[in-house]
Amino acid sequence: MKRAGFFKLIIILLIFTNRRYAQDVRDDESLNYTYLGPVFSYGINKVEYTDWFDNSTETKKMSGSIYSGGLALNIFADNLCGDFQVKYAYNQLDFTLTYMEFSMSGKYLYPLNSLFSLGAGLGLYIETPPSSNGHNGSAGVQLPLTFLINTSPGTKLYIDFFTRYGSLGIGENTKSFSMGANVGFIFKVG
Questions:
Q1: Which residues lie below 8 Å from residue 188, measured CB to CB, with a gap of 6+?
Q2: What are the pLDDT tens digits along the chain (190 aa)?
Q3: Nearest to 84 by CA among 114, 118, 115, 121
């Protein structure tokens, strides 16, 4: 009999404890939303590196264009956005490089109205081997400036203007500076 009374007391305490410390349902603006969709990029690139050419080491400076396309995953939490991108890149310098590019950035978005938002943030990018022409992979920092358009309740169009600084992945004492734009159309998936 004492055991039954003890278990009843524990069950009653659990019920009242759950009611007292139950979490409030969050309002719609504090929820996290996940978006997924295609992204395309274009940029200009200036690089400098030291390597063996013929019988001596020289420093080369080049500039060219970068084209890339892939998939973007964006997670929105109120005015914050986490942006993750996976792209295949085609870099035209004095020679051509192709490689996979991964980037991530955190951005703060300021809503101008219910349709438009402006934002800025900080991120990282990585260019991975294997690729063409002995490119060993590289990495650096990026600064995105974002213009976001809410095209429908389940879709968004965004344009990122970015600046990047990092290494090249060929030779020694490398520097790479690029500027460009990402255009993505993302769909709400969660």
A1: 33, 34, 35, 153, 154, 155
A2: 566 666 676 777 666 665 555 555 555 556 789 999 999 999 999 988 887 777 777 788 889 999 999 999 999 998 999 999 999 999 898 888 888 999 999 999 999 998 999 999 999 999 987 667 777 888 999 999 999 999 999 999 999 999 999 988 787 888 999 999 999 999 999 8
A3: 121
**This prediction's pTM:** 0.77
